[in-house]
């Protein structure tokens, strides 16, 4: 199978994930601007998760461009990633509605950890399918950003036990770290 169907399916799932997340922002019945104030934590959680889904979509898109064909293990690894990303709306909604609570902040981190692990697995399956001279392996190198992200997610989960706000700040820091364009794959593909 070529990558077009895999990419189209993944794009569709991620579009649905974003749609589900935005539906968690309930329209207030009151017409006064003050009615929007309780929605601020919900909106901020949505914004954070929207950025994360966008980052995953962008990096997934670039990663698939290193593939010539899709193997069974790559398909399964991709589904594994999409499973964890499909849980982002639930974790986002719970954290947004309960932004000062420990469990929602910790669960959000757990979902981010598992999505990051699933991304590493997919990356590994793609590298394995490409052989020892893998374009993706050359592009990602030691993947310090990926490993740093995973470490920070774990730190944030632990921090959520003392301060959900600190955990949420760390999640935002990781998202900001990834907003800096990652051109590793583009550079390898253009060589």
Automatic annotation (TrEMBL):
In terms of PANTHER family, this protein maps to: ENDOSOMAL/LYSOSOMAL POTASSIUM CHANNEL TMEM175 (PTHR31462), ENDOSOMAL_LYSOSOMAL PROTON CHANNEL TMEM175 (PTHR31462:SF5)
Pfam families per UniProt: TMEM175
Q: Where in the cell is it found?
A: Membrane
Predominant cellular place of this UniProt entry's protein: membrane
Ordered alphabetically, the record's keywords are: Ion channel, Ion transport, Membrane, Potassium, Potassium channel, Potassium transport, Transmembrane, Transmembrane helix, Transport
What sections of the protein cross the membrane?
Answer: 6-23, 35-55, 75-94, 101-122, 152-180
* Organism of provenance: Cyanobium gracile UHCC 0281
Tell me the protein's name. Answer: TMEM175 family protein
Protein family per UniProt? Belongs to the TMEM175 family.
Lineage, top-rank taxon, reads Bacteria
The protein's annotated catalytic reaction(s) are: K(+)(in) = K(+)(out)
> What membrane topology is given?
Multi-pass membrane protein
């Amino acid at each position: 199978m070529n990558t077009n169907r895999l990419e189209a399916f993944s794009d569709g799932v991620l579009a649905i994930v974003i749609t589900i997340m935005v539906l968690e922002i309930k329209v207030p019945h009151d017409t006064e601007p003050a009615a929007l104030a309780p929605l601020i934590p919900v909106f901020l959680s949505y914004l954070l998760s929207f950025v994360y889904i966008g980052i995953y979509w962008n990096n997934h898109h670039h990663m698939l461009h290193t593939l010539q064909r899709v193997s069974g293990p790559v398909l399964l690894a991709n589904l594994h990633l999409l499973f964890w990303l499909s849980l982002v709306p639930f974790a986002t909604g719970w954290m947004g509605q309960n932004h000062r609570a420990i469990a929602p902040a910790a669960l959000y981190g757990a979902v981010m950890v598992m999505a990051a692990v699933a991304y590493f697995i997919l990356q590994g399956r793609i590298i394995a399918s490409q052989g020892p001279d893998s374009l993706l392996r050359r592009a990602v190198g030691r993947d310090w950003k990926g490993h740093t992200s995973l470490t920070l997610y774990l730190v944030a989960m632990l921090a959520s036990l003392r301060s959900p706000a600190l955990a949420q700040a760390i999640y935002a820091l990781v998202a900001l770290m990834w907003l800096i364009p990652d051109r590793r794959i583009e550079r390898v593909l253009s060589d």
